Amino acid sequence: MLVVLLLLLLAAAVCGRLGVWQIDRAYERANLAAQQEAVEQEASGPAELGELLAPQEAFPGELVGREARVTGTYEPDGQMLVAGRSLDGVEGYLVLTPLRVSDDGTGGASWAELSGPPVLPVVRGWVDSPAPGPAALEVPAGEVDVTGWLQASESTARTGTVPDNPDGPPLTQDIAASALANTWDGPIYSAYAVLTSSDPAQPAAASGGPAPLPRPVLDGGTDVNLQNFFYALQWWVFGLFAVALWVRLVRDEMAGGRRERRRDRHPREGGRRDDDPVGTGIAGLPSS
């Protein structure tokens, strides 16, 4: 029985390990698919924002990291700094500026039924101080053609309050459309753009402008390939079956032992035991 136990435990361990391997494969295949999607998006070049997303429309996850192009006018009076954001391991601030959209590629059709031209939050770069120099806060005057990576609007789940910033723009913790809509007038997009280029150009980082940011991470790699996932479940079921088989063998062995002991306790013929030829009857009297 001990040998059987070791063999079944070994089989269960092998099945469990194979199940873990299948789960790793499930995530690996999903990550590869996400990387391929990112490469295809980058190769396709920027698309008109209006072809991808309309104002106040729910942001689909597959647009994360997609490059979009839009024309509008910056509103520097609404500019904010997003606190607690790191670049190359250094904590600092994102420069967040509202862009009043004038052309998203649809000729205004995407906001025709709304209250007016929408505003797109644009992250123009990163600074290391809540009181950056004038060049970091300077925006191109008039209409500007903006190209940037799309990212989903954040939630307002962070706790705590941000301090006042008397020497610079107001601070915020999140790039959340739900909160920004109360600060900036007009309809708002459920996404923000991480600036990659603009025409006219903003001040370069070497001249005191905000430092450019890398492309946002594509979130699609967190999904699981279902085929490998179900393979993993099958291996784990096989492992549980091996353990259940051992339990069944132990129960059968114990049941056999109980039957042997029961036969030893009760007479085999006429209520008589082999080691008690006389036997006992009611009230301990010899049975006839």
Tell me what the structure shows:
This is SURF1-like protein. Keywords: Cell membrane, Membrane, Transmembrane, Transmembrane helix. It is found in: Cell membrane; Membrane. Its main location: membrane. Residues 266-276 have a biased composition (Basic and acidic residues). The structure is a single chain. The protein has 288 residues and is α/β, with parallel strands linked by helices. The chain has two domains: 1-44 and 225-260; 46-220, no CATH class. Helices cover 33% and strands 22% of the residues. The chain contains five helices and eight strands, in the order H-E-H-E-E-E-E-H-E-E-H-E-H. The protein has helices at residues 2-44, 49-52, 134-137, 177-180, 226-265, and strands at 47-48, 67-74, 80-87, 90-103, 119-127, 143-152, 171-172, 191-199. The protein has a five-stranded mixed barrel with strand order 2-4-5-8-6. A hairpin with a 2-residue loop joins strand 3 (80-87) and strand 4 (90-103). Helix 1 runs antiparallel to helix 5 (226-265). The longest helix has 43 residues, at 2-44. The protein is elongated and about 105 Å long. The two termini are 45 Å apart.
Q: Could you provide a short overview of the structure?
A:
The protein has five helices and eight strands; from the N terminus they run αβαββββαββαβα. The protein has helices at residues 2-44, 49-52, 134-137, 177-180, 226-265; strands at residues 47-48, 67-74, 80-87, 90-103, 119-127, 143-152, 171-172, 191-199.
